[in-house]
Amino acid sequence: MALVARLLVVDDDPRIRHLLELLLSGAGHQVVLADSAKAALEHLRKETPDLILLDIMMPDMDGLTLLGRIRAVRRLAKVPVIMFTGGGKELEGPSRALGADLFLEKPVSGRRLKEVVENLLAWEGYVLPGGERVNSLEEVGSRLRHALPEEARFKLLWRKTASRRALLQNLLAKGWTEALLRRILPGEYDLYDLLGHLAFGWPLVPLRERAARVQDPRLASHLEAYLEEKRLPLEGNGLLEELAQALYA
Description:
The chain is about 55% helix and about 10% strand. By secondary structure, the protein is α/β, with parallel strands linked by helices. It folds into two domains: about 5-120, Rossmann fold; about 135-249, no CATH class. The strands form two sheets. It has a five-stranded parallel sheet with strand order 2-1-3-4-5. Strands 6-7 form a two-stranded antiparallel sheet. Helix 6 crosses helix 10 (about 190-200) and helix 12 (about 215-230) crosses helix 13. The relative contact order is 0.09. This is Response regulator. One of its GO terms (molecular function) is DNA binding. Keywords: Phosphoprotein.
């Protein structure tokens, strides 16, 4: 399955940021721009890009320091990082020592940059929490089963607010929610169905098909609000518990 790569570009020069955005978005990637190390860290606290392009010479925090902080986070430890700078070839050694995958000196041609980005992204397989890469959805499912209760208990736990919340918190803490929703099987699916599909072989049910199963207009209105806001599976009062029973029976 081909995925659109999510790239983070970190550079304090607005001209370079603009050029890189045009070049990489034109190649079909989703590009997020950060004008400082601080802005990059704020983004990385919430997101895990597929690749980071990082300038070294920046005023608030240099790229080498930022790279060290990135590699210290387990979730980000294996995200490919391209260091690029006009500061000189002597910075390549420290960049490599801190975990950079590639070092480029400015100026870099658009053709060369697209080539190295595609090469770093051209792995076959899926990224698991912690940055581990596996080659098949069967391997994803095998890892996921270890993070979930056995199938029958998983179904029961999901239908109650307290136990569903605990499951979600556990999956979020381990990085599974982001991996599933954005990196492994992105699309209009409920997290419950993604978990069941990968771990237990259930068929995938699109969100709109789930919505059609709910006949009670009270429940349908709550589901519609959920779909529009694109939240994780529902938590709440007794009415929402009734919705969960209707959806996940």
